[in-house]
Amino acid sequence: MTSISSPLIAPSILAADFARLGEEVAAIEKAGADWIHLDVMDGHFVPNISFGPAIIKALRPHSKLPFDVHLMIEPVDPYLEAFASAGADHITVHAEAGPHLHRSLQAIRALGIKAGVSLCPATPPEALSEVLDMTDLILVMSVNPGFGGQKFLHSQTRKIKTLRDMIQSSGRSIRLAVDGGIDPETAPLAIAAGADVLIAGSAVYGREDYAAAIRALRNSN
Ligand code: DX5
Ligand code: ZN
């Protein structure tokens, strides 16, 4: 019941060649990706800076795949509209990034796109119990956000299981993504726990053959 046969694969362009981002996005679509994951970092909520809406807007014509925008920024509300008009199909905010998660999710849905919430490793799954009806996507961080190439935190599989149960008993259709340290060895653990979206930077863009890398993740369970 909780085992998902074919998870969606969402490569993170954080590990792509930033000098050739348009081609890198097109290449990953051709290689069989389901979503493009875009990590936005502000040097404040997380200790790293990546890119903002202007880059996302420039990338939009290079792929038809859903743009899954992961905002690691604080505050978040003043920027939601800019990311939506840049071409985001999903916007995921962090539960830790402000006191008004419910308002942020409402604002995202009001922009006509899917609303996601991410939890850092230290945040319990119960943080989402009052907003499940506002949520289309839950993103469990299996590393501390801010950098690619970190080691998968095994402690997070229990959280994925609890969230899968919460989703199941809510009767809602909510995607459950895992992000951080996902490779063909760790992906089966996340899938067994109930994840149905695998976000991976290094395990796709860090490989020579993107199609083979995506296949290896998709068939890893
Ligand atoms: C980390 C980002 C991740 C990151 C994943 O803060 O949210 O999406 O790019 O990179 P890997 O797969 O290399 O751990
Ligand atoms: Zn991410």
TrEMBL record:
The gene is rpe. Belongs to the ribulose-phosphate 3-epimerase family. Keywords: Carbohydrate metabolism, Cobalt, Isomerase, Manganese, Metal-binding, Zinc. One of its GO terms (cellular component) is cytoplasm. SUPFAM superfamilies: Ribulose-phoshate binding barrel. This is Ribulose-phosphate 3-epimerase. One of its GO terms (molecular function) is metal ion binding. It comes from the Bacteria.
